[in-house]
Amino acid sequence: MPESIKNKRTRRRTVVEREGAKLVDQYFDHVGEGYLRHAPHPDMDKVANWRPKIWSLNTLNPWYGGLMGVHRRRSGVGKDKIVWLEMGSVANPTLLLLHGFAAAKEHWLPLMPFLAGHFRLLIPDLPGWGESGFNAERHYGLEEQTERLAHWLAELGASRVNVVGNSMGGAIAGLLTARHPEIISSLVLMDALGLPGERHTDFVDDLLMGKNRLVPRDPAGVLRLTDVVFYNRALAASAAFFSATELIHRRDVNAFLFGEMVSRRPDYHKSTFEDIKTPVLVMWGEEDEVLHPSCAYTFARLIKRAEMHMIPGVGHLPMIESPYVCANSIKEFVHRHL
């Protein structure tokens, strides 16, 4: 056997046997395949014919922009349209904020008053979400989303970026850092998807039976969603009121996007979380009922330069439930590693 082929096979076995790679595959194999086996298939006619409409959070754009100097931008990246909020001088360090599943760029608005003046903020709607483009013929797995963001950042000329990702956005942020370390200065994984903990939540138990509280189809389902992502019940009720129309309107598209996320799982033969060498802050709400807080310890154990910040009395969305604490932790961590 030629030596080059032997080396390739040795490298392939080494990658497959890495602990982080096995955990990534195990996580998506267990939860993703369990969900796909039991969940109903999305109605692809409804998905293909779906069209976005103006929803309540979009009305905050002009108000917030006038108050704080936030600018709404849009551009085409290949076949994708990306819409984002931008704020701050290009002379400041760049901070990229990535939202999670069933969310949008507006979910980061509570942090912005506390980050203003410290960073150039880039806050996109991930492709398929919010005001960014959706196309039923495109793929929206974590790999595809990661590469779209890398191309978008290249087009913006953002050569060095600090990235914060929540939930699904955390998985994308982690993969972006692992795959493109040359452009990432620091990473904050906030209640991030991607690795299993020692325990899992009732939400994950439901997923294994094909039930997904992140894809509500009626007002009662929206209340169940907000109850699972927020620890603060008053905030959960308020969020349900403002988001119900949009979430119900997107139900078929969101079911499709969830299937894309769990079926098109990350390529663990490439660099993954344990290969990250940049400084990482693992931030987690101690009351997270979506991704169990024990997941935070898996990330911290596998990533060499990781440190942790557990936030008491907070659920899956720390940037909304505790924006001041969250922003201060991000500022201190990022500035320390510039």
Describe the structure.
The protein is 46% helix and 16% strand. With 338 residues, it is of the alpha/beta class. It has one domain: 3-Layer(aba) Sandwich (Rossmann fold), CATH 3.40.50. It has an 8-stranded mixed β-sheet with strand order 1-2-4-3-5-6-7-8, sandwiched between helices. Helix 2 (19-38) crosses helix 8 (202-208) and helix 6 (142-156) packs across helix 7. The chain is globular. Mean pLDDT is 91; it is low at 1-16.
Map the helices and strands:
Blueprint: H1 3-17, H2 19-38, H3 44-49, H4 60-68, E1 71-77, E2 80-87, E3 94-98, H5 112-115, E4 120-124, H6 142-156, E5 161-167, H7 168-179, E6 184-192, H8 202-208, H9 219-229, H10 233-249, H11 251-263, E7 280-285, H12 294-302, E8 306-311, H13 318-321, H14 323-336
Parallel strand pairs: 3-4, 3-5, 5-6, 6-7, 7-8
Antiparallel strand pairs: 1-2, 2-4
Helix pairs in contact: 2-8, 6-7, 9-10
Which features characterize this protein?
about 350 residues; alpha/beta; Rossmann fold; eight-stranded mixed β-sheet; 14 helices; about 45% helix; disordered N terminus
